[in-house]
Amino acid sequence: MPLPNFPRLALRCVEALPSRDEPGFLHLQRRVLRVEFDDGTLSEPFVYDAVGRERLDAVVIAPYFRDVRGDMQVYLRSALRPPAAARPEAAWPVPERATLGHLWELPAGLVEVGERSVDGLRRCAARELHEEVGFDMAPEAFAELGPPSFPAPGIIAERHFYFHVEVDPERRVRPIEDGSPLERGAAVIAVALHEALELVRHGEIEDAKTEIGLRRLRELG
């Protein structure tokens, strides 16, 4: 069924307020906005905070192979995510597990400024797969895995671009990683796709981009 047309709303920026914080990996974007409605009227001004960064977008890669039975096996990587690990206990609606902030994820990484093109996204996917999982694949081997998505559109304008690639498990080497402490010593595992989706259903795989990638991979059969 086709979706209805969006309401005819437009944003009007009244003022961009400078951040008082020192420049960092992320930066605060504070703006005074108004909404222009279909009849031309404007809302009252309101302040809206968002987060920006120079390397805005990211690729998400689903590397897979088929076992002797023809079942699809997909590679996941462990990740420690500081914001999740530091989630304040006062904000918990339900108890959290002791491994809070430790996630199983599909390999992913930020798109460099020089990779902002269709071909550049594939180069980025190839680079990140080599760094995080240990497969040295040509960019041309990567195929799109559905359209891009906004992971947190109320906070940041980041898009995720999804790719899948078939790999040979015999050709995997030790990941070179990117040199950061958060990537050092991560575990890389191959999991049957149907088992990975079962782990999603039971909350053992909590990363949203990974769930999207796994479900899209399953649709490929």
From TrEMBL:
<dbReference type="Pfam" id="PF00293">
    <property type="entry name" value="NUDIX"/>
</dbReference>
<protein>
    <submittedName>
        <fullName>ADP-ribose pyrophosphatase</fullName>
    </submittedName>
</protein>
<keyword id="KW-0378">Hydrolase</keyword>
<dbReference type="InterPro" id="IPR000086">
    <property type="entry name" value="NUDIX_hydrolase_dom"/>
</dbReference>
<dbReference type="InterPro" id="IPR020476">
    <property type="entry name" value="Nudix_hydrolase"/>
</dbReference>
<dbReference type="InterPro" id="IPR015797">
    <property type="entry name" value="NUDIX_hydrolase-like_dom_sf"/>
</dbReference>
<feature type="domain" description="Nudix hydrolase">
    <location>
        <begin position="54"/>
        <end position="213"/>
    </location>
</feature>
<dbReference type="GO" id="GO:0016787">
    <property type="term" value="F:hydrolase activity"/>
</dbReference>
